[in-house]
């Protein structure tokens, strides 16, 4: 058998197994897993782990906020940073703002991504204006175009939808086989807290955490789960940050609801003490939901170990520490005026490997599942992506599990002027990253051209093992034929 490239002598790991094998690659795909494969072009992976390339499933790239601020990374810098972090695919957001159509939104993001990305990409569609046209025509059209996940917000005055709009979107998503994602925080609780804090003269970044109480996350997650159960629609709760929220996700899964949970590195490695750094430094650590405390971190680790979370995503939302980003409203801005978000594309996987696998908290199989396989399944890319198997795209990250490095801003490849993880020593780093069999990162350098990354037309969500549990009121068999929901897959 002829190969374009063989990865020799490595230890291959998937979400289910670890084994010694060479990998034969042809036409961008894995075509052989065997011993003793030969080719003119080889990569020696002796002493290395050969893993599916990471899939970064939550990041904000070339995205305007509702108030007009632009993220610091575009598809070029964002994809390069992701690749240095061991990712061979990423799925940023395409954000519909009020008054915009969905098709118009996706066309805009196509123009931003095409010709720029070094790795394959897709988008999650943020839906902020679910008009009848959007619900009946544009969301099905987005699904047909391969954009099969829709995100909604329960907070932010300019983005949030109400409960009945949420039910409409869940229902359309269910009918199409799409997945709804939700930012679940109670808008009224946050507004009430913020107004009182500001009236009392408490405006520095530390009060950002106070204004987003854990109860606000728990209330909204609980409500979101109930809405999803009423519609019998799958729902992913993004960036879960509290024990209360994680417990709700866990219980819902146990009860058989189609609920998925995502969490992020900042909730494991940063605390509200970081928000309390001198001057405006705390602004660098502001994200929503906010970072919490060490006790929360311990509980979140246990949920990660127990399988509550299917995804561990960066939520890379890059706003520079200058007047283009965090300080756009001046050096004395209140916590309400400072953009929420921090960078993390390049360190998501090294943080999880070092503190998860190397520190003995999670297995290598859990790491692979959290870094790539689960995202591929949930977001309709499996088995083409997210695993190492014959027939899959040769999206592969080769890791040196013993390499210890300190995170430094000068080694980053994003467009940011800080990293929240400055000075952190981590063991285990990706050294070579392939996308469809092509070297993207090799020998610590970028060796691919922007624009080689392709849009991935995604498929429906994989709901294997997640039963339907319609509420009686929406079940056509039990609601006296009221037909609240059109017939769809059970
Ligand atoms: N939600 C996100 O998902 N990312 C950045 C900020 C936010 O509110
Ligand atoms: Zn969010
Ligand atoms: Zn986000």
TrEMBL record:
Q: Segment Disordered: which positions?
A: 463-490
Post-translationally, this protein is described as follows, namely: Carbamylation allows a single lysine to coordinate two divalent metal cations.
The EC number of this protein is 3.5.2.2
Keyword terms:
Hydrolase, Metal-binding
Pinpoint the Amidohydrolase-related domain residues.
49-440
Keyword Hydrolase attached:
yes
Looking at the UniProt entry, the stretches that span the membrane are: none
Enzyme class, UniProt record, top EC level:
hydrolase
N6-carboxylysine-modified residues are: 151
List the record's Gene Ontology CC terms alphabetically: cytosol
Q: Which cofactor does it need?
A: Zn(2+)
Protein family membership = Belongs to the metallo-dependent hydrolases superfamily. Hydantoinase/dihydropyrimidinase family.
State the protein's name: Dihydropyrimidinase
Protein species of origin: Halovulum marinum
Q: Which gene encodes it?
A: hydA
């Amino acid at each position: 058998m002829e190969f374009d490239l063989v990865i020799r002598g490595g230890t291959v790991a998937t979400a289910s197994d670890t084994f010694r094998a060479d990998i034969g690659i042809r036409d961008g795909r894995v075509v052989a897993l065997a011993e003793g494969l030969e080719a003119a072009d080889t990569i020696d992976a002796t002493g290395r782990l050969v893993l599916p390339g990471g899939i970064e499933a939550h990041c904000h790239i070339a995205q305007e906020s509702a108030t007009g601020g632009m993220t610091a990374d575009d598809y070029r810098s964002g994809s390069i940073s992701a690749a240095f972090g061991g990712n061979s695919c990423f799925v940023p957001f395409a954000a519909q703002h009020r008054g915009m159509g969905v098709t118009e939104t996706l066309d805009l993001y196509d123009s931003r991504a095409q010709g720029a990305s070094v790795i394959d990409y897709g988008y999650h569609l943020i839906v902020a204006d679910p008009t009848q046209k959007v619900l009946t025509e544009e969301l099905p059209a987005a699904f047909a175009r391969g954009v099969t996940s829709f995100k909604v917000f329960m907070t932010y005055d300019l983005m949030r939808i109400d409960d009945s709009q949420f039910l409409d979107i869940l229902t359309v998503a269910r009918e199409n086989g799409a997945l709804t994602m939700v930012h679940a925080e109670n808008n009224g609780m946050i507004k009430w807290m913020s107004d009182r804090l500001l009236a009392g003269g408490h405006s520095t970044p530390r009060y950002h955490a106070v204004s987003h109480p854990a109860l606000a996350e728990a209330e909204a997650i609980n409500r979101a789960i109930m809405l999803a159960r009423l519609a019998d629609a799958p729902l992913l709760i993004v960036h879960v940050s509290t024990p209360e929220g994680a417990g709700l996700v866990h219980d819902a899964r146990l009860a058989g609801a189609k609920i998925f949970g995502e969490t992020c590195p900042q909730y494991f490695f940063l605390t509200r003490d970081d928000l309390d750094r001198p001057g405006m430094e705390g602004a660098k650590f502001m994200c929503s939901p906010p970072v919490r405390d060490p006790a929360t971190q311990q509980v979140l680790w246990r949920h990660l170990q127990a399988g509550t979370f299917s995804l561990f995503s960066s939520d890379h939302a890059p706003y520079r520490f200058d007047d283009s980003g965090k300080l756009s409203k001046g050096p004395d801005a209140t916590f309400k005026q400072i953009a929420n978000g921090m960078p993390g594309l390049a360190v998501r996987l090294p943080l999880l490997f070092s503190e998860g696998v190397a520190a003995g908290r999670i297995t290598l199989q859990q790491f692979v599942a959290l870094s790539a396989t689960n995202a591929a399944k949930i977001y309709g890319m499996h088995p083409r992506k997210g695993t190492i198997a014959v027939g899959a795209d040769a999206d592969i990250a080769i890791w040196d599990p013993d390499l210890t490095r300190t995170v430094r801003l000068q080694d980053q490849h994003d467009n940011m002027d800080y990293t929240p993880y400055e000075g952190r020593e981590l063991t285990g780093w990706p050294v070579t990253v392939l996308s469809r069999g092509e070297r993207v990162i090799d020998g610590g350098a970028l060796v691919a051209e922007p624009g080689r990354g392709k849009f991935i037309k995604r498929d429906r969500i994989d709901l294997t093992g997640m039963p339907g549990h319609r509420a009686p009121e929406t079940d056509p068999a039990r609601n006296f034929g009221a037909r609240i929901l059109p017939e769809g897959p059970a």
